[in-house]
Structures are given as structure tokens and as C-alpha cells.
TrEMBL record:
Protein name: Glycosyltransferase
Keywords linked to the UniProt accession: Glycosyltransferase, Transferase
GO molecular function, one term: UDP-glycosyltransferase activity
Domain of life: Eukaryota
Similarity annotation: Belongs to the UDP-glycosyltransferase family.
InterPro entries: UDP_glucos_trans, UDP_glycos_trans_CS
Keyword set includes Glycosyltransferase: yes
Record EC number: 2.4.1.-
Annotated source species: Nicotiana tabacum
Length: 462
């Protein structure tokens, strides 16, 4: 299956949670085929990807022209990290500026290689890639970085708009088995509630689908290699070094620590932040909390103590009860440590996979995108999650926080069941990417079938 002359172009969306899985997929394909792979994005994102890459082999990173200020965004803003909600639509629209530069690059590659690339692998949010591919005489493959359940529910909502026919706020998601995906309008992000006619995807079920993943570092998948986990964050503010993180975790019993993070681009309201802090203190459970300024403030600005209860940080850090981390923490190291017992997360798919691969049960607080669908699946179908609340408009009390923490970190009852189920799913995750002798996990088989299909399609069209 090896052919060094084949060439694949990859186009991720302008978000860290999308770019990292693209880089991981590129590594998987390159390891299996030795094809040339070119990942394209904007200049600052290419710089970020370069800082996260190890053993590049036959993978090239190419930047396309992009001026955020001219496109209506703050200067030097090229991804969604810490981007205000009001600018989200703008950054989506800004990606259209990459259309012509992408076509120009592909035509240059065709001229240089003497033949067309095998395909473009584009993010589902970069829809213009299909038109570019068609104009260049090649195929486009859409890559969704979300989970299958959440992606299917997200697509079904935008394609069918079932919430517009909700009865007493309740509706069923078309395409799912009877009674398996019932939602309330209150669970939807405000952008979804306003959807009134957009049909982004047609005839989805007629397209082939390959379930490749999880796209996690090999050292997370293979037992006994946890100490080798490295998270490069060049040009990012290190809120907590891996060394200090491990030192702090080593002071706490097994499965006792709650880790809290809402991803690279999310935050919560001031009142929610205050209630979360009070509930954490009342629970008396040790925790690591990654914080950034609340909704309505500059997410890249300084975190102010006034957003937390008076003296809160000093009290919890004094007795090693809590660790407040500004901006970024080494999430992989935290989730892989034996002291980590639960993860309070926005349910972004990368975070979900990282948590479950280590058998860490989840407290969910979905905020945007398909996260509410992921949360529902984790609770109702997998039994590894309990939901605290939804969105940035909800009201929570400190008692709500304490209650869910007590449940998940309990060594008996529901907490014990969630931990056992999370461990079982962790085993399944490792089995999916396993290849030993004649055995191939489901992800390995899917990758082989994907490559074979691309080659067969090229042969049939030539």
C-alpha cells in the first residue's frame, strides 16, 4: 500500500481542537502509506502546528495568505481560541478568503508533482474545499473532528430543523432510532435555536463514512508509556508546567482529584464561576481548575481575583485542596495521572476521548456546537457522565456543584458504576487502534479501507 508519489492535501478549520486531530490524522496516514501530505492553514496556525509536531517525515505545513484585520477580526486573530462569541460568525465567513489561495496552491502542486493530489481532506466547516477540489479535478473528503453521535445529531438538526416543530419544547432528532434521541429546545445553543432554513448537508447517508480514531498520542493508548507524554505549547502561556502539575497530583490519593477545564475557546459567566467556586470549596474535594476571564470580558486578558469568592484561591491552595491555573494546563498529564478521579468538561470531543481513554468519568457542562449531544450520549447510552448544567445562560447553585462532585468521586453507588464503565470504554478505545499479528482494530481497518477506496476511485476515474 506504500506509494511515495501519492499526495494528500489537508485543510483544518481555524480552531485548535480541529487542527490537532488533523495533524494526528496526517501522522496516521503517513505512517501507514508514506504518502506526501501537505497541511494548509493561516500563517499563525501553521506556526502553532509546527511547534506541536514531532517526527514530521513526509508532512509539509504550508501557510495561505490571511489578514484577520481586513476580514473584520481583531489583529493577529487566526483561530477561535479565546475569541468572543460575537466574532464566531466572522471567523467562519473569513475562511472563504482561503478559497482562491488554496486552488492556486493545488495547481502549483499538480505542476510540480506531474499529477493531481490523491484528494483533499477538509474540515466539515470548510465547505468551499469541495468546490476547489472539483475545479482541480480531484476528490474532497470531509473530516469531522467530533464524535459520530454528536456529529450525526448536529447534522440532523441543521438539515431537518426539528426544533421548529417542538411540542412543549420537546422534539425528536430525525434519523435516530425511535425514542433514542429526544431533546428539549432549552438544551440547544442560541445559534441553533435561531436556525430557520439552513440546509448545510444533503443526502448524508448516501456517502461512505470511515470511523478512524481515536486520534490520541500513542503514549496515551499504550499502557506503561504514560511518563513519555509531552504537550508542546510553544508561544502559549504556560499556566502550569507538567512538572509542577505532577508534583501537586502526587500529593493526593488515587481517583480523588477533580479536573476542570472548558477547552481552548470557552468560558462561563461571572455568576456561574462564583457558584462553581463555592461548590468546590463546600465539597472539600481536591481539584485543578483551568480558569479564564468570564463571558463579557477579554478572554486573553488578566484573570481578576474579584471573579472568585474573596480569599478563595488562597484558602484552597494553602491546604493543597485546589489549584487555580490561568489559561492552560497540561491536560494529558492530568488525565493520565492516577490521582485524577473525574473531569468537569464542556464535552468537546477531544476532551471526551482523552478522558475516557484513561477511564476518567465525566461531569458535563456543554456550552456550544454538538457538545449537548455528546453529553446526552455519555449519560444515557454510555453511563459515564452526569450533567451539571448547560450553556452560559443557566443558573447553578453551589449545592448543585457539591452534589455532582460527591456522586462522581464516590467509591460506591453511581460513582463506582461510572468509573467501571469508563474503564471498560477505555479498553475499547485502545482495542480500536490496536494492531498485533493478524488482529486489526476497527480504526486500523477503517484507515486501510479509506486508503484503498481513494486509490480505487482514482483508478476508476483515470
Amino acid at each position: 500500500m506504500s506509494d511515495t508519489q501519492e499526495h494528500i492535501i489537508m485543510l483544518p478549520f481555524l480552531a485548535l481542537g480541529h487542527m490537532i486531530p488533523f495533524l494526528a490524522l496526517a501522522n496516521k496516514i503517513q505512517e501507514r502509506t508514506n504518502y506526501k501530505i501537505t497541511i494548509v492553514s493561516t500563517p499563525l496556525n501553521i506556526k502553532y502546528l509546527s511547534s506541536n509536531r514531532q517526527n514530521p517525515n513526509n508532512i509539509s505545513l504550508v501557510s495561505l495568505p490571511y489578514n484577520s484585520f481586513d476580514l473584520g477580526l481583531p489583529p493577529n486573530t487566526e483561530n477561535t481560541e479565546a475569541l468572543p462569541l460575537k466574532d464566531m460568525v466572522t471567523i467562519f465567513n473569513s475562511t472563504l478568503s482561503l478559497k482562491d489561495p488554496l486552488k492556486k496552491l493545488i495547481l502549483e502542486i499538480i505542476k510540480k508533482d506531474g499529477k493531481s493530489p490523491l484528494c483533499i481532506i477538509s474540515d466539515t466547516f470548510m465547505g468551499f474545499a469541495s468546490e476547489v477540489a472539483k475545479s482541480c479535478g480531484i476528490f474532497n473528503v470531509s473530516f469531522t473532528t467530533g464524535g459520530a453521535y454528536g456529529t450525526a445529531a448536529y447534522v440532523s438538526l441543521w438539515l431537518n430543523l426539528p426544533h421548529l416543530l417542538a411540542i412543549n419544547g420537546v422534539f425528536k432528532m430525525p434519523g435516530f432510532d425511535e425514542n433514542s434521541c429526544i431533546f428539549n429546545v432549552s438544551q440547544l445553543h442560541p445559534f441553533m435555536k435561531l436556525a430557520n432554513g439552513i440546509k448545510a448537508i444533503k443526502n448524508l447517508t448516501k456517502l461512505p463514512v470511515w470511523c478512524i480514531g481515536p486520534l490520541l498520542p500513542q503514549c496515551m493508548i499504550k499502557k506503561g508509556e504514560k511518563d513519555q507524554i509531552l504537550e508542546s505549547r510553544i508561544a502559549k502561556d504556560h499556566g502550569l508546567s507538567p512538572e509542577k502539575c505532577i508534583e501537586w497530583l502526587n500529593k493526593h490519593p488515587k481517583n480523588s482529584v477533580l479536573y476542570i477545564s472548558f477547552g481552548s475557546q470557552n468560558t462561563i459567566s461571572t455568576s456561574q464561576m462564583m457558584a462553581l467556586a463555592l461548590g468546590l470549596e463546600d465539597s472539600e474535594k481536591p481539584f485543578i481548575w483551568v480558569v479564564r476571564p468570564p463571558i463579557g470580558f477579554d478572554l486573553k486578558g488578566e484573570f481578576k481575583s474579584e471573579w472568585l469568592p474573596q480569599g478563595f484561591q488562597e484558602r484552597v491552595e494553602k491546604g493543597n485542596k485546589g489549584l487555580i491555573v490561568k489559561s492552560w494546563a497540561p491536560q494529558l498529564q492530568i488525565l493520565c495521572h492516577g490521582s485524577t478521579g473525574a473531569f468537569l468538561t464542556h464535552c468537546g470531543w477531544n476532551s471526551v476521548l482523552e478522558s475516557l481513554s484513561e477511564g476518567v468519568p465525566i461531569i458535563s457542562w456543554p456550552l456550544a456546537g454538538e457538545q449537548a449531544f455528546n453529553s446526552k450520549m455519555l449519560m444515557e447510552e454510555m453511563g459515564v457522565c452526569i450533567e451539571l448544567t448547560k450553556g452560559v445562560e443557566s443558573v447553578i447553585e453551589k449545592d448543585d456543584v457539591k452534589k455532582v462532585i460527591d456522586v462522581v468521586l464516590s467509591t460506591s453507588g453511581k460513582g463506582k458504576e461510572m468509573k467501571e464503565r469508563a474503564n471498560e470504554i477505555g479498553i475499547s478505545i485502545r482495542e480500536a487502534v490496536k494492531e498485533e499479528g493478524k488482529f486489526k482494530g476497527s480504526s486500523v481497518k477503517a484507515m486501510d479501507d479509506f486508503i484503498s477506496t481513494l486509490l480505487c476511485t482514482r483508478n476508476l476515474s483515470s
